Amino acid sequence: xxxxxxTDARLANPEPENWLLTKGNYAGWSYTPLEQITxxxxxxxxxxxxxxxxxGSGHEAPAIVNGDYMFVxxxxxxxxxxxxKTGRVLWRYQREMPEGFGALHMTNRGVALWGDKVYIASxxxxxxxxxxxxxxxxxxxxxxxxxxxxxxxxxxxxVVKGKVIVGPSGGEFGVRGFLKAFDAQTGKLAWTRYSVPAxxxxxxxxxxxxxxxxDSWKNGGGTMWMPGNYDAKNDVIYWGVGNGAPWLGDQxxxxxxxxxxVLSLNPDNGNIISHFQYHWNDSWDWAGMxxxxxxxxDRNGKKVPGLISAQRNGNLYWLDRxxxxxxxxxxxxxxxxNTVFTSIDPKTGRPxxxxxxxxxxxxxxxxxxxxxxxxxxxxxxxxxxxxxxxIPFNDNHCMTLTGMIQPRIPGxxxxxxxxxxxxxKVADNxxxxxxxxxxxxxxxxxxxRQTYKHSWNWxxxxxxxxxxxxxxxxxxxxxxxxxxxxxxxxxEFPTPSGIISPPSSFSIDGKQYIAVVSGWGVDAQWIQxxxxxxxxxxxxxxxxGSVWVFAxxx
Length: 554
Ligand SMILES: O=C(O)c1cc(C(=O)O)c2c(n1)C(=O)C(=O)c1cc(C(=O)O)[nH]c1-2
Ligand SMILES: [Ca+2]
Fold this sequence. Notes:
mainly beta, Methanol Dehydrogenase, Chain A, five-stranded mixed beta sheet, four-stranded antiparallel beta sheet, 2 helices, 38 strands, 3% helix, 37% strand, globular, binds calcium ion
């Protein structure tokens, strides 16, 4: 079939029938304007086709759809192309894993599209451009060196104006985070931007300049391991920055810009325009890796550009952004229990801490939420019709950590805590752990919630113009539909494994489809094991990847 090239204009204004970007649009909404599937008829949803991916581990990539072509990336550096309507396999690309390779998170969060190419960042630090029609390799380039940098890539790339932008992971291996941008046509490196400034660069004054920790910036963390968002109108990208390395903040005294922050950047050269740091001197692995969602706030009857973001630290943030990309704190509120922040400066958003709840070297501290946060990487969703932000959250869990000095050995855990002693504690008689919260963006209030007594929630959310939410994320393998206005459960379907991939939607010949990839693994699986020990939950969730496509039956 013909392949319609993906242009800058199409990415900035994606047609409703396709799903060209990880989160559906550059604003990060995870929203489809399609309206055929409604709260009234969603109970008639039936599988149309499914396909095994032939690999295990956690499948965290959405189905990306451009007309008749659907692209799904999987763990182990694989990209599958399907006929969107029938599920026929068009091609399969697999980049061989290097011998001896290991990473902390064996997953991939999806491909990016531009022109006639498909871009995949592989776990062994490479970025590859494939021919969309054939799957043939067109170019490849090195983003990092997995052996010498101890880095790996799980992120989906983001393409902005002909540049493919991606950052590696490795916050627990002492990687100093960065983004790289490559020419989408040729693979030539366009720019590199570190999240932690070198001495003399703006922000370096927030890192130790002398003494025992003067070199801490070199391995300070701040990996940018989730795709950013883009304000196409004003030409500004927004990217989240991860946790500090090692985790203990006393080993890098100072605020440590730009860890656990959102950065606004110029996509042409990666220059930092502005930032907001969610919390200073991170000591909890509360990474700020999820870019905030681009919305507009209603202010005195006027629409003003804003950012909203449910952060891992358990706070929900409202930030202003202007046409130049300047970010200004507006307000925040806890959406899960946080035992660390004793107050937040209403002007600056800067928190003060209960020192007893801040882990440090040779000190044991207990804090809530645990390192997995009020929410981890799964995407929130925004629906402009309901005006609600939907947050996949986890509450009633805490962590006890003891800090230590851990030498940095390439490729090895060096977060400054014993990896076997990540002491997750759930609340006694917890009423639930996971769930979905719906928040009014303008009203600033929670409107409804769904809670899961027997599961964490690892499910990114899709919302539709017709008022439906789709989400997996639970250990019972179910894919669910909810009423976006009320939160009422409308439909559910058990897939072969648990779902931790973002659902997406597309339409062909006037028929709307919902796609999702089933395939439990990574931290969702790790926590399930801990919940077995703590609360007697089933130890394992069946694994193995499969793609599912649904539509309304008769
Ligand atoms: O600091 C990092 O570089 C980094 C990377 C990743 C990743 O690439 O998946 C995760 C984390 N940190 C992390 O802290 C975390 O909780 C996490 C969960 C998952 C997952 O896929 O379930 N990845 C990651
Ligand atoms: Ca991390």
